Amino acid sequence: MSHDSTAAPEAVARKLSGRRRKEIVAVLLFSGGPIFESSIPLSVFGIDRQDAGVPRYRLLVCGGEEGPLRTTGGLELTAPQGLEAISRAGTVVVPAWRSITSPPPEEALDALRRAHEEGARIVGLCTGAFVLAAAGLLDGRPATTHWMYAPTLAKRYPSVHVDPRELFVDDGDVLTSAGTAAGIDLCLHIVRTDHGNEAAGALARRLVVPPRRSGGQERYLDRSLPEEIGADPLAEVVAWALEHLHEQFDVETLAARAYMSRRTFDRRFRSLTGSAPLQWLITQRVLQAQRLLETSDYSVDEVAGRCGFRSPVALRGHFRRQLGSSPAAYRAAYRARRPQGERPGEPEAPMATAGQPGPPPGLATGPGPMGHMPLLHPDSGVPMQSRRTPAGAVSLLPGPRSGG
After folding, report:
1. Within-domain flag for 387
2. Cβ(37)–Cβ(95) below 8 Å
3. Does 10 reside within a domain?
4. Of 117, 132, 340, 375, which has the most beta carbons under 10 Å away?
């Protein structure tokens, strides 16, 4: 799916209650939240830009708990409104949550549930998705969050269909975005939904950002192991797989190394990471190919062999599905961004390890997930594809089974 492909809501949207107003946006802030994500909806919805053709919203900044609220850099904020102000909003935005391991305040969760029941649109930016999930608003729905936290979200809330490929997911009355700048993408999408392309384009020009970004989160992933699986017995099998991606092996090989049946291994792997092992393995091979295309002069055929794909055709198919371009086009675009005269060097080994070259300048780095997988059908486990409906919405359909 492209980042702005959205799942068509299955349920009929609730009618907004009489006391709520569509043009009122409430932003729910918590202590410990990052200042960048918190500032995005404040800037998008809280500044009058009618002179530029952007319809005005009325902003309510609400504290989700007792203040003052401490944010990144030691800043302290005092929210002018409390939770009671949410009752007037037609849109409620949770910019981010301070910790993916701690539960949000129950009073705030109750306020979000009431808002949703009364027809308000609920938005979670980055780790704000964890707050929406804790409130039960993501049950049975597609959602996204920062790729680094997607496995944790999928594991902690198994009824949520986590899709870590997307920059944002619009499921009608509940919307979620990936990390940091993806919150801008989602807020622009909301303006576009409410007031059309011209208004969103005018706002994008004021913010000096593109009105739409192509692609998803795949280009930002890295391959390091998430800290939470370090003590698990499967961690050794996963580490072996990452060190032998240049060899042709399948999930049955990994199950045998774990001394488990395929069925038990699949279940254990999914419970640990929130992802299917086959899709995890394919994605790791694609990421390895991505690194080799960036750092070597190997041909695409050679890259396919060094990443364990059975053929260059298999590499091209999986690469395009995950990154939205062919291997050759990706390499050309990457080199066009590099400083003139800088040549890729041949890697020391056919597989990437902890000392591998990093992603292109400006791309996110940090501890990576096990679970940056395509969204899987909840019944069959088959990767799901998007299809636009005549009305412009997107429905999720089972896609073809993939093989390495």
Report:
1. no
2. yes
3. no
4. 132
Rounded Cα–Cα distance for residues 182 and 185 (Å) = 5
For 121-132, the pLDDT digits (tens) are 999 999 999 999
pLDDT single digits (tens) 63-116: 988 878 888 777 888 888 999 999 999 999 999 888 888 899 999 999 999 999
Please check whether residues 204 and 248 belong to one and the same domain.
no
CATH number at residue 303: 1.10.10.60
Contact indicator for 1, 165 with CB cutoff of 8 Å: yes
pLDDT digits (tens, 9 = 90+) for 188-243: 999 999 999 999 999 989 888 888 776 666 555 555 555 555 556 787 888 888 88
CB burial of 124-161 (b: ≥16 within 10 Å; e: otherwise) equals: bbbbbbbbbbbbebbeebbbbbbbbbbbbbbbbbeebb
Give the containing element (helix H, strand E) for 89: strand 89-94
R_g (Cα) of the chain, nearest Å: 22
Tokens of 272: 């640990």
